[in-house]
Structures are given as structure tokens and as C-alpha cells.
């Protein structure tokens, strides 16, 4: 029939080549992350077993009091800094018999501090590999945690908001004793990371092939421009905000190695992801110990956006370039 358009057929060999390329890239990105994560996971386990966390917590007592919290809660925050949010939550629950019930305002301030600054060694190593700087990003996270927490404490105290004590809806299950269960759990986590990275990379390639990535970049461009983030990092930034810095950082590493993201965009995207990542999961977790979503989600995100926009404009370009050379 004249004018008839033949159907588009995907050649089996082209599909196999695309799949093979996808798996190779996912393996390469995952191995890059594993080289960072595995030594740190082992080091953190050693520090925990040696009981070094309380020494990190001791200087945090006065900081906790400035934030309107019992000084003992510094141990919960220190645990989150060294390990992860789950560890901080477990210590928080264990400390409640000692400190007594806390108001929702106090729990929200502590929750925000832990959300800003947790898993600093592992996630800081990822941002360093991206080219954003280990010490710079961790200083930003610690400063953001204290400043945002202090602002919330002042607001809650001035208006007597969220003053009622809140029940804790989550009790941590005891860890199985021994190194083997711990090692199996960590191996499962690393395997899950590979599966997520493979899925995300497949999604990004599908969006690019369908032309939807350009649509997303165009839609987000005005907003991201205010943050100092170029359109080339738009999709990756959204992934980091919603899923986590490990996944977003892994994709940034891949794009940086390909030379597709400018250094300034790397710094801006990594900074925003450092301050606010895994927004959905982390907000739900904090709700289980009594935080208000107005603090753990809204205040954290607004502060992160404002801080990122300010930092990108304040930090000189040569600083960004110097940081990229330390990868």
C-alpha cells in the first residue's frame, strides 16, 4: 500500500548488545562503589565493636543542649553519623528510659539532625569519588544539621509548637550475634545496591531513548538553575533526592568518568543530595520515632535547597576544580 510506514523492529542482536553494555556499565559502577564501601563497612564495624562511638558522642552533649535536647542524645546522633539512621534510631529508643519522654518538637529536631548528618564516612567517600570533596561535604552536612536544627528549635520554642510527648512506634529487632550473620547481611545489601543501580541505569537509558529525559530536563531547568545545577545533572539529582546518595552518587561517578557533567554541576548536585536524599524512605523512618513531617521533610528540603543555592554562588570556581583533582 502506498505511503504505508513499515513497523519498527528491534533486532535481537542490537537488544543483546544494549543489554550487555548496560550490565557492563552497572558492574563497573557497582565495583567502583564497592571499593569505597567495603573497607568503610569493615572499619565502622571494628570501631563499633571496640566501643569507640561514645568517645565521638561526648563532645556532642553541649551541642544537644543548644538544640533543646538532653545531652545523652548525642550518643544517638553520633551513632547515626558513624553508621546509619537505623543505628541512630535504635540508640534513641534505648536512651528513652534514661532521658524520659521527649516532646514531638525535640524528637523532630533530633530527627532532622540525624537526617542531615548520618553515615558520614561511607557517603562522604562516595561524594569524594564524585569529585565534590569528603571534608567539604561532611562540613556542609554537619553545619546544615546544626543550623536547621537550631532554627527549628527556636521556632518550636517561640510558638510552643509540638510540645506534647509522642509515642515511639518502632522497636528495633536485636541483631543476630556473630560475624557471619553480619557479613551475610552486608553482602545482601551490596547485592541490592547492584540491582538498584542496574535498574536505574536501564531506566535512564529508556528515558533517553524515548526522549522523555529531555522533557524532564526542560521542565526542571528553571528550578534547577536557581540551585546552580545544569540540565545534564537533572535526572541524577532527582534520583539522589528520592532514593539516596549511594545510588545518585554512583550515577554521578559514571557520568563524571564519561565527562558529561561539568564540575560545577557535580558540586551542586552532590551538595543537594548530601543535604537531602532518600526523602521518602527517611521521612517515613523518622515518623516511626515521632518526628513531624513538617520538620523531617518540609523544613529539611527547603533548607537544603536554599543552602545549596547559596553555596554554589559563594564557593569560588577554583575551589570546585581543586576538589575535583583530589578524587
Summarize the structure.
The chain is mostly helical and about 325 residues long. It has 16 helices and no strands. Helix 9 (about 180-210) crosses helix 12 and helix 11 (about 235-240) runs parallel beside helix 13 (about 265-275).
Describe the structure.
This protein has 327 residues and is mainly alpha-helical. It has one domain (36-168, 180-324). 76% of the residues lie in helices and 0% in strands. The protein has helices at residues 12-49, 53-57, 60-66, 74-82, 85-99, 104-116, 120-130, 134-159, 179-210, 212-227, 234-242, 245-258, 263-275, 279-288, 293-314, 317-324. Helix 4 packs antiparallel against helix 5 (85-99). Mean pLDDT is 81; it is low at 318-327.
- Element order: H for helix, E for strand: HHHHHHHHHHHHHHHH
Give the mean pLDDT: 81
Report the helical percentage: over 70%
Largest sheet: none
Whole-number count of domains = 1
How many whole angstroms does the radius of gyration measure? 22 Å
User: Please, what is the oligomeric state?
Assistant: single chain
What is the β-strand count? Answer: 0
Total helices: the number is: 16
The end-to-end distance, rounded to whole angstroms, is 60 Å
* Percentage of residues in strands: under 5%
Shape: globular
What are the low-pLDDT stretches, counting only 5+ consecutive residues below 50? Answer: 318-327
Helix and strand content put the structural class at mainly alpha
Amino acid at each position: 500500500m502506498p505511503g504505508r510506514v513499515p513497523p519498527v523492529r528491534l533486532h535481537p542482536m542490537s537488544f543483546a548488545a544494549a543489554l550487555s553494555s548496560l550490565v557492563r556499565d552497572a558492574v563497573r559502577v557497582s565495583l567502583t562503589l564497592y571499593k569505597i564501601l567495603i573497607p568503610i563497612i569493615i572499619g565502622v564495624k571494628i570501631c563499633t565493636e571496640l566501643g569507640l562511638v561514645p568517645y565521638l558522642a561526648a563532645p556532642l552533649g553541649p551541642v544537644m543542649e543548644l538544640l533543646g535536647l538532653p545531652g545523652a542524645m548525642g550518643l544517638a546522633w553520633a551513632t547515626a553519623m558513624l553508621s546509619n539512621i537505623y543505628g541512630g534510631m535504635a540508640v534513641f529508643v534505648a536512651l528513652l528510659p534514661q532521658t524520659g519522654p521527649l516532646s514531638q518538637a525535640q524528637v523532630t529536631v533530633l530527627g532532622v539532625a540525624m537526617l542531615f548528618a548520618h553515615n558520614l564516612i561511607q557517603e562522604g567517600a562516595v561524594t569524594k569519588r564524585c569529585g565534590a570533596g569528603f571534608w567539604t561535604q561532611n562540613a556542609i552536612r554537619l553545619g546544615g544539621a546544626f543550623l536547621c536544627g537550631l532554627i527549628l528549635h527556636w521556632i518550636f520554642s517561640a510558638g510552643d509548637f509540638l510540645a506534647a510527648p509522642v509515642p515511639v512506634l518502632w522497636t528495633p529487632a536485636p541483631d543476630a550475634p556473630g560475624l557471619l550473620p553480619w557479613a551475610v547481611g552486608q553482602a545482601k545489601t551490596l547485592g541490592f545496591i547492584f540491582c538498584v543501580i542496574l535498574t536505574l541505569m536501564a531506566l535512564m537509558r529508556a528515558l533517553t531513548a524515548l526522549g522523555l529525559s529531555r522533557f524532564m530536563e526542560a521542565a526542571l531547568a528553571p528550578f534547577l538553575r536557581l540551585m546552580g545545577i545544569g540540565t545534564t545533572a537533572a535526572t541524577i539529582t532527582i534520583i539522589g533526592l528520592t532514593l539516596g546518595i549511594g545510588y545518585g552518587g554512583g550515577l554521578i561517578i559514571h557520568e563524571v568518568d564519561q565527562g558529561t557533567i561539568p564540575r560545577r554541576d557535580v558540586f551542586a548536585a552532590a551538595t543537594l543530595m548530601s543535604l537531602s536524599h532518600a526523602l521518602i524512605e527517611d521521612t517515613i523512618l523518622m515518623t516511626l520515632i515521632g518526628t513531624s513531617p513538617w520538620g523531617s521533610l518540609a523544613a529539611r528540603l527547603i533548607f537544603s535547597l536554599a543552602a545549596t543555592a547559596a553555596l554554589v554562588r559563594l564557593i569560588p570556581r577554583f575551589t570546585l576544580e581543586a576538589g575535583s583533582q583530589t578524587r
